[in-house]
Amino acid sequence: MKVFALLVFYAVGLFVMGYLILDTESMLTAELASQIDIEIPENVLLDMLEEMRYWSKFSALLTLALLTIKCFLMALVLYAGLFFANRHQGVKLGSLFKVAVYAESIIVLAGMVKVAFGAFSDFTYTEFSLFYPLSVLSFLNPEAIQPLWYYPLQLLNVFEIIYIFLLIYFFSQEIEIKKTESSKVVLGSYLFSMSFWLILILFLTLNFT
């Protein structure tokens, strides 16, 4: 229960911070107003904003669901790494889920940093959606890059590196193995799964753009 309470804390924290300091409606309205070549009827714009307000009420639940799914999938990835290393005997999936939830704290922090930057910067809605703190993409001009490479360049960030180190640390503590062995299992399983995920995203991007 403590692990799920932590997930709820993550989701509520992101929701409250975004609700209090981030005005995505103004971002979207200003961006649409600046695009003089695209005429959007006022009633369509109002309907769009109303729909955004409606779904924002459920953003905390959606965030909680996504965090739970992500941590569960990461637990499966770590278990697969233990299985191929022949160290899975006696290891429960719940323990690995706990490892994933603890390590997820740094990704939640990255989300909060993004919200803070969005609130106190003059980002447009598109610029905010592409921004990821301390990522390679944040130091480049997105207009000079093909959209295909946006996600890979977002994924290359300082928070993701810290996330891997946290996975290694909590994994070694929970499974009670040496950090060198923990590094091999975590890096092997994580890098393989992320490579597969990245290829899938690139494939979908190519086919739907």
From TrEMBL:
According to the record, the segments passing through the membrane are 58-84, 96-120, 149-172, 184-206
Key words, A-Z? Membrane, Transmembrane, Transmembrane helix
Could you tell me the superkingdom of the organism this chain comes from?
A: Bacteria
Protein name from the UniProt record = Yip1 domain-containing protein
